[in-house]
Amino acid sequence: MLILYALLVPGSLAKTDDLGRARVLYLGNTVLTSIMSADPTVQAYPVPAYLFGMKEEDVHRFLRTYMPRTYAGLVDSNDVIYVGDSGVKSYTLAWLGWMSGGVVEAGMGFVMSGGSESFGGRGNDPSWGDSSVGEVMGVTCNHVVSDSGFFKPFRLVVQRADDALMSSLPFETAPRFHYLNMEVFPKIGSVLLATANLPDNNPAAVVMEAGRGRSLSFMPYITDPNPSVVPFSGWEFYVDFIPNLMLYGAQAPLPTDYMAAHALRRKINGYSELREMALEVLSFAEKLGANIMDAQARIASADGQLAEAKGLYIRKELVACAELLDQAVAGLEDAGALAIKAKDTAFLWIYIIEWLAVTCTLMITGAVVWELMVRRAMLREAATTRAIHSASR
Hints:
This protein is α/β, with parallel strands linked by helices. It folds into two domains: 2-254, Rossmann fold, CATH 3.40.50; 259-348, no CATH class. 42% of the residues lie in helices and 13% in strands. A hairpin with a 2-residue loop joins strand 9 and strand 10. It is elongated, with a radius of gyration of 33 Å.
């Protein structure tokens, strides 16, 4: 077991692109895409395939459209396969074979998190364990008729504090989870990383070496960033945990200074939200006919600084990255202020034009009323006259 665990330490086996980014084929409930994007070393390619929240024909349509066309296309363009609550019956036998082959032969990472369609499935959803993908998973999965018993509050208990993932964040401060796939059991040769603080100490995180790749089974449900549904998603380090899962699956190094990485990820995530707000104001101002060229130029400049900052993050130049991110955020705030100013200017001209229109209408109406009503009353009525013929006639 110790020899196996040593092989799980990130190093030369890391599968990333030339820039050191882990490219994630994200299958299932894809609401975590923006959170993954908060880390420049993670590139997410979402494919919605979530039977619980989508029509079956829509799931098949998305998979036909966005799944790689060949095995080479899968392994050359992706480093990690992440299944976030997606049913195995949605995938063809060829796709499932490519996934397992990509892990064993090409060194891809495979990550699955909890959910009704994950692991053993429920009801009409078959078990992932019965597919070829089950061969590369670190747990055996039992199918259940109903998963109602899986809804239990619990916290994560770290079992391997020396593991890169388990030591990457202070999990002792994490809030509760609300759902756990319980009918799973670690395979011989796997490593139990964490358990749930439930009476049966159910496995919560299991990792296994599968050929050249790494397979991580994380049984709690995490694919909902709403803390009212998943209390764990309200954790301060939730924005760090999600990309860390992907990097760990790719066998790439995790941030050594988690607080510094956390601050930068929060800034990048905040930049995206601020940019969206600025673009909404710009769109509204443009509809009013406002001049938004200055604001657009500021946003383009800030986007350039963000791209450069992401490059610095990938190269681990965190201090320079933080400084450039601050400049990008400041530029975006200036763009937002310019957008609001453009909107206010447009509204001012609208008000002026409306005031002039109303005032001119009142003046014209007043002049007409004066001529027809007031001035007419000052004139005397003319008497009727007739022509007087000459006596000579």
